[in-house]
Amino acid sequence: MCNCYLVAMKMQQTSTEVDINKRQKYLGQKGMVALIAFLSAFIPLSTDLYLPALPGMAEYFKAPVNLVNLTLILFFIFFSAGMLLWGPLSDKYGRKPVLLTGLTVYILASICSACATDIYQLITFRVFQAIGGGAASSVAMAIVKDTYDGRKRESILAMVQSMSMICPITAPVLGAILLQFISWRGIFWTLAGIGILALAGTLALEETIGKRYTGTIGQTMSRLGVVLKNHSFTSLLIVFALAGIPTFAYLASSSYIYIDGFGLSEQGYSYFFALNAVFLLLSPMLYLFLSKRYDRRTIITTCFAVVAMSGALIGSLGNLGPWLFAVTLIPSTIASNCVRPPGTNLMLEQQQEDIGSASALMSCISLLMGSAGMLLISYGWSNIILALGILNLIVGLVCGALWLVISKSSSYNKLCNSKSSKL
Questions:
Q1: 145 contacts 95 by C-beta, under 8 angstroms
Q2: CA dihedral 153, 154, 156, 160 (to 10 degrees)
């Protein structure tokens, strides 16, 4: 009986791929996945790639570091605002027109950033770059919901999230390599080129939205509030946005822990960072493997328990050396990112309309929660490893408790226990 079920699911998957190849005659199945992953990676591409150029920009403009850092801080703020703008608009005007408009703004702002003559111009152009780039992240997730159903959607989300993890790992290294041959202006020309590639992929995209919202612009933007009133969606949004805090907290504190705390060189730090990044990359695919054997509720519950236990180990053993810290951190890295594909899919399942608004809220709130994690770990703790361990412990316990309450409610039982929760 199990074999029959697997065969049926395989046939359904093949049928889905054929259908997508038919609907997306230029991109096809593989091109569609590649485009979605590329759009999903716009945040790390737009920030991490130019991080190595910050000192050179400060020297060129003869500007204080805190002023130059505004090009990064304001980017995150307006990127979040841009997602909340473009998501609802894509429900009204379609995914493709919104993507074309946002990416055009992104490209023009990148070119202007490359030509900036003072730091204030650069800050202004980065704001417009962020607003335009917000279209990519918010609409990418909406396209996934438009195009895929059930377990196929979950597998696509895992692949996209795994592929998009490559960018934050490689972008700083690529930026440093580029700076050996070009100036900081060349980084922004590179970002303009990335925008042009995304624009070309979008031109090949066939519109994915079925039914469009017909209200006014004001009514369209108000759909963000309507989505938030969906308690099943909002409760899941809180849980899975909180789950991302440990990862962002580690990203913000890792260099201080390894270089300042353990006395490693920058190169030594990069090895430990890369080690953790490998598990970050593989986590979504691990979920697909586990989901063949265990139901979604069990996997998510176990992952939150692992985050909490990992936090306890980090706090108690992490200070004893870089290897012990790395080993105690890895379970949290795996578990906190293993819940991303099922969490994203569950949230999308709660909305049958206003998908653009829902996708924008998911991306925006996750980014804001991650920023909160970075702020928390940057408070100035006397023992930053202990603080990181406590943060992991608290997040694991809180998310686990909230998930147990949510997953036991009647509105989720059918969704979490259905046969569609297995491949």
A1: no
A2: 130
Q: How many residues does the chain have?
A: 423
Residue 7 burial by CB count (10 A; 0-12/13-18/19+): exposed, middle or buried?
exposed
- Give the domains, in start order, of the chain with CATH numbers: 24-220 (1.20.1250.20), 222-423 (1.20.1250.20)
In terms of Cα–Cα distance, which of 79, 81, 86 is closest to 101?
Answer: 86
Q: Which residues contact 213 (CB under 8 A, 6 or more apart)?
A: 88, 91, 92, 219, 220, 223, 353, 354
Cβ neighbours of residue 404 closer than 8 Å, sequence gap 6 or more: 301
Rounded Cα distance, 316 and 320, in Å? 9
pTM over 0.85: no
Q: Cα–Cα distance between 320 and 262 in angstroms, integer?
A: 9
Give the span between the Cα atoms of 362 and 369, in whole angstroms.
11
| Amino acid identity, position 347 | M
DSSP state of 420: G
Q: What is the pLDDT of residues 135-191, one digit of tens each?
A: 998 898 889 888 888 778 888 888 887 777 777 667 767 777 788 888 889 989 999
